[in-house]
Amino acid sequence: MTICLFVRFDLRDEESAARFDQLTAVAVATIAAEEPGTLVYATHAVRDEPLARVFYEAYADEAAFQAHEHAPHVVDFHARKNPLLIGEPRVEFFTPGPGTGLPRTTLPNPREGEPQ
Predict the structure, then answer these.
(1) pLDDT tens figures, 14-26
(2) According to the model, what pLDDT value does residue 52 have?
(3) Do residues 2 and 60 make contact, with C-beta atoms less than 8 angstroms apart?
(4) Residue among 85, 89, 70 at smallest CA distance from 31
(5) What is the DSSP letter of 57?
(6) Structure letter (DSSP) for residue 2
């Protein structure tokens, strides 16, 4: 089953935001190159909140999510970004529903359970 999550980071100041963005760029490049089970890793700055960042992440399954969480580049990212934050990130997990943008195999079949 696909694992999806949303993470919000609130940064200390403009310098912290710039450093966070640099760390994120390096991490995303490594994730794209080394994590085939990471389906989506989309990072965003929040409009009208210059010190906030949000990530949307989707993983093929629990094993892919665990591989991501324990990857050395992700462990390093977390260690380096923590001092830049004003508190713990907000993390919410999701179950994908109808939509577009994810591989079709990750979305529930709307006809499942209907009589044939």
Answers:
(1) 999 999 999 999 9
(2) 98
(3) yes
(4) 70
(5) E
(6) -
Q: Long-range pairs for 77-84 at CB < 8 Å and ≥24 separation?
A: 77/23, 77/24, 77/26, 77/27, 80/23, 81/9, 81/20, 81/23, 81/24, 84/11, 84/12, 84/16, 84/17, 84/19, 84/20
Q: Enter the tokens of residue 80.
A: 């380096």
Task: Provide the b/e sequence for 82-109 (b: ≥16 CB within 10 Å).
Answer: eebbeeeeeeeeeebeeeeeeeeebeee
- Among 11, 10, 68, 12, CA closest to 37: 68
pLDDT in tens, 49-73: 999 999 999 999 999 999 999 999 9
What is the 8-class DSSP label of residue 101? Answer: S
